[in-house]
Design goal:
The chain is of the alpha/beta class. It contains 13 helices and twelve strands. It has two domains: 191 residues, inorganic pyrophosphatase (n-terminal core); 110 residues, Diaminopimelate Epimerase, Chain A, domain 1 (Roll). It has a six-stranded parallel beta sheet. Strands 7-8-9-10-12-11 form a six-stranded mixed beta sheet. Strand 7 and strand 8 form a beta hairpin.
């Protein structure tokens, strides 16, 4: 960590790269890093191949992003992304004349490590935001209320509001420290737990009513593009549904399959300590943690019966 902080102090132009369709941890970590780097008079930017979901901007403010790397970039910090293809800019990152690459993540077994010049990978961290906090402190940047709120959003979302088993004593201690440093927990809770739009109500009502429990104890829900259209809902409205389904008394795990224009997105959740969803997600080409994981698939991978 000390070497990374020292290196960042020696360069001027820095890009913080996050994965496509970013979650709260990726966005919160990136925003916090950029703000901390700007304190050091660095030219820092966030690079993301897809738009930032509006719900996260309600907490951290409008997030300015670029879809590709600045050619004059001296350093790239890849945050919360272990797979190169998920950045959407893999070709730029693999070119011969490329900037110094730093990987910060709590996911393991990815291929980004193969191209990283520096890396901090800590699978014991509940969120990448925990690691970013340590880096910001090592850089001797000041943790402002905006930085604290961004990091707390990352932790809160990746821990399922502190309900997932990846929540540790360090997670709670750091969250308390961030609140003391000005993090707006009330705004985070209100945004994610108490904001329920009519479109989300329509979508969730239909999906929960039609969810099936199979012989393996997995509650499965399927959401088609037409379902989203009828409910006047967006992909963002699907977030959190798998967590709710996993709370069913009979459920060992929950799987939400949502159709995209390119295929299907699978979200896996469980509340049981003896179930490892990470292995299943990796088998399906995805990634994640033991209790929360996901994957992407082409439309042809599922039978017509499942799609119906």
């Amino acid at each position: 960590m000390q070497k990374i902080a020292h290196f960042l102090n020696s360069v001027k132009q820095i890009s913080v790269v996050i994965h496509q369709k970013p979650d709260g941890d990726a966005i919160g970590s990136a925003v916090a890093l950029v703000k901390a780097l700007e304190q050091k008079e660095k030219n820092a930017e966030i690079v993301c191949a897809t738009p930032i979901p509006e719900i996260f901007e309600q907490i951290v403010g409008k997030v300015k992003v670029n879809k590709s790397l600045d050619l004059n970039c001296e350093a790239v910090i890849i945050v919360d992304c272990s797979e190169l293809h998920r950045t959407g800019i893999g070709r730029q990152l693999k070119r011969k004349k490329r900037p110094t690459i730093i990987a910060i993540d709590h996911h393991t077994n990815g291929n980004i490590s193969a191209i990283a010049d520096f890396e901090v990978i800590d699978p014991k961290a509940a969120a990448s935001a925990e690691i970013v906090y340590d880096l910001i402190k090592e850089m001797r940047s000041f943790v402002t209320p905006q930085i604290a709120t961004s990091l707390l959003m990352g932790i809160y979302t990746d821990c399922g509001a502190f309900q997932h088993n990846n929540t540790t004593s360090k997670t709670l201690q750091l969250s308390g420290r961030l609140i003391r440093e000005g993090a707006d927990l009330q705004k985070i809770v209100t945004t994610f737990m108490r904001t329920l739009t009519q479109s989300k109500k329509r979508l969730w009502g239909k999906v929960i009513a039609e969810a099936k429990l199979n012989n393996f104890g997995v509650v499965t829900a399927v959401i088609s593009l037409n379902d989203l259209k009828i409910a006047k809902a967006s992909e963002e409205d699907i977030n959190g549904l798998a967590n709710v389904l996993s709370l069913a008394n009979e459920a060992k795990a929950a799987l939400v399959l949502s159709e995209t224009k390119d295929g299907w997105r699978g979200v896996l959740r469980t509340r049981h300590a003896n179930i490892n969803l990470k292995k299943l997600a990796r088998f399906l080409g995805g990634r994640g943690q033991k209790k929360a994981a996901g994957f992407l698939a082409t439309k042809s991978i599922f039978s017509g019966k499942i799609i119906k």
